[in-house]
Specification:
The chain has one helix at residues 126-129, and strands spanning 11-12, 18-19, 22-28, 36-43, 48-49, 52-53, 58-65, 67-71, 77-79, 84-87, 93-97, 103-110, 119-120. With 134 residues, the chain is mostly beta strands. The protein has one domain (11-127): Jelly Rolls, CATH 2.60.120. The strands form four sheets. The protein has a six-stranded antiparallel β-sheet, with no helix packed on it. It has a three-stranded antiparallel β-sheet with strand order 9-8-11, with no helix packed on it. The longest helix is centred in the last third of the chain and has 4 residues, at 126-129. It is globular. Bound molecules: manganese (II) ion.
């Protein structure tokens, strides 16, 4: 048993991976053969990830607020507390907050053989975020 007391400083999402301000708290890190990586991610209104993929896919669970998510080629979906989204391995996608709402989700994934959690691409433009054809 390993008890980790709350109190680790909240991280801020790197500007090259996120548009807007995003706060990150680690919940689980890969160790001793486990590949599980989990985090709590709080997006400020309008903030979102860049386009990206995960080597083994990813599950997000919305716990607060209102958000948006999209896979490449699909519609922009509104997501709300209790909603779960699974992104397939290698499926290009983004997730974030609604324009006028915070959104917090728990994110869970298995890292790749090299410990990589994601491969990052282009930023999500305002047109893409707004659901209009670019
Ligand atoms: Mn993702």
């Amino acid at each position: 048993m390993q008890l980790t007391r709350d109190g680790t400083a909240t991280g801020v999402g790197p500007a090259e991976w996120f548009t807007g301000t995003v706060f990150l708290d680690t919940l689980a890190s890969p160790s001793n053969g486990s590949r599980l990586s989990a985090s709590s991610v709080r997006f400020t209104p309008g903030a979102r990830t860049a386009w990206h993929t995960h080597p083994h896919g990813q599950t997000i669970v919305v716990v607060e607020g209102v958000g948006r998510a999209q896979r490449r080629g699909g519609p922009v979906e509104e997501i709300r507390p209790g909603d779960r989204v699974f992104f397939e391995p290698g499926e290009e996608h983004w997730h974030g907050a609604a324009p006028d709402r915070f959104m917090t989700h728990i994110a869970m994934l298995d890292v790749g053989d090299d410990g990589r959690a994601a491969d990052w691409g282009a930023r999500v433009t305002d047109e893409e975020y707004g659901g209009r054809a670019g």
